[in-house]
Amino acid sequence: MTPLDGTPVLTAAQMRDAEEATGVSVEDLMHRAGTGIATALRRLAAGREVLILCGPGNNGGDGYVAANLLAAAGLSVRVAALAEPRSAAAIKARDGWGGAVEDVADAAPAAILVDALFGTGLSRPLDDAIANRLHELQATAQFSIAVDLPSGLATDDGAVLTRPPAFDVTLALGAAKPSHLLQPAARYCGAVRLLDIGLGAAGQERVLAAPALRDPGPDSHKYTRGLVAIVPGAMPGAAELASIAALRSGAGYVLLLTDAPGSPHAIVRRAWRDDALDDARIGAVLIGPGLGRDAQAQHRLDTALATPHRFVIDGDALHLVTPDRLATLKELAILTPHSGEFDALFGTSDISKIDRTRRAAARANAIVVHKGADTVIAAPDGRVAIAAHASDWLSTAGTGDVLAGAIAAMRAGLPDAFEAACAGVWLHADAARRCDKAFIADDLAVALTAARGAL
């Protein structure tokens, strides 16, 4: 079992293609999966009785293989089936199980529950009786594990076809799937761990991982570490938060274009003028937090975008631009919309958040950080990173401004805009993990120092 960080994310169709590309038979792949499941269960069960629920497809076949291996290792394991297996590989796996097969409908509970009913590829809701029984057995278990995906979840778009119980662990077979990361499905998966079954999977979508950032060296100075210029507006507190976040994420110099006093004193303050950004040393310009949407805000945005700098565009500024305008910028901009801002800029759609974000990036020729409990980052060249679920306590005012500041610091110091956006998102989530419950955005900005220092 390994964490998902940095690993490929595959849809159900991509998984089928990856399995076929191995040249390995379905039976052998099933044995690999069952072996991985059994190895994980030996650790997780800690000697307690295991009940494996097997469905009629290959997910159930994986469960039969795991049960047989666990029994051979001396563990107390029972199997309950929903129906007879249908595929040739699953039938063979069922025949290899030497114990009794109970009916899911009346199987007694066990300390460890394993859901191997459906997994990847489910396309319709579960019958109510099956769903209710799964909830009953999970509620009485001490620990619950889903094989590949909790039964009831779609694979590719985070949709919940039937609400499953919330599992403690999900064992992803071969690769992460979109619904391990996209909401609302991801909330039912618990801790997701990858089981390697030898696919050698690759693709343009990956799980966000910790960035590889360099520390300053003996020849570093404030400008080589990155100068971030921040354009404020009607609500100055948002720009103040973003400025602190940029400094604490590692920027060498933060220029806040205001003559209003404030702290920390490390922030350089200078009144906005139309030529305020005429400085070739600026590594990135952040505009949008607290900008407002009035005529002054539009003027500042238009003036800024006429310069050749790298931009991070957030908040109000996203309501004052169009994708066509963004596509004309000399440098790839980084856009940081939440769902409402995304819909206003790019329109609504029923396709998955991954596909929506990738299309938006191509349309605007920009990096799009589609924020939320399931943040998706996409580049115009098709690269996508999906962040694992971050702290729910981020749902408070100002945290988006902190994220914008962190991304701006990364953009000022890194040549690749996509990698800069990914680094900022990761730092923001790690800072949240370091805060106690009920933290405020000011706490989050301060915690960025520890998050950056840990890399």
From TrEMBL:
Residues that hold K(+) according to the record: 59, 115, 151
UniProt keywords, alphabetically: ATP-binding, Isomerase, Lyase, Metal-binding, Multifunctional enzyme, NAD, NADP, Nucleotide-binding, Potassium
Gene Ontology BP, a term: metabolite repair
Entry binding sites for AMP: 371-375, 400
Signal peptide: none
EC number from the UniProt entry: 4.2.1.136, 5.1.99.6
Name of the protein this chain belongs to: Bifunctional NAD(P)H-hydrate repair enzyme
Organism: Sphingomonas oligophenolica
